[in-house]
Amino acid sequence: MTIALEGESAEDALDASSILSLMGLGAEYGTTVVLRAEGEGAEAVLHQLAVILETDHDTE
């Protein structure tokens, strides 16, 4: 599974399973990102990650 800022190429995407990659992305709450996944269970994993990313953790 990969994550990239909107507008970046798929080649520049980072490993979405790595917390260091997610932190290194530099995205703040409200930033649009592109998630990509393949294989069995990909849709469920994408949904779970989207829920986490859509949450404003600074207010919790």
Automatic annotation (TrEMBL):
PROSITE patterns: PTS_HPR_DOM
Domain of life of the organism encoding this protein: Bacteria
HPr domain: residues covered: 1-60
One Pfam family here: PTS-HPr
Official protein name in the record: HPr domain-containing protein
Record organism: Glutamicibacter uratoxydans
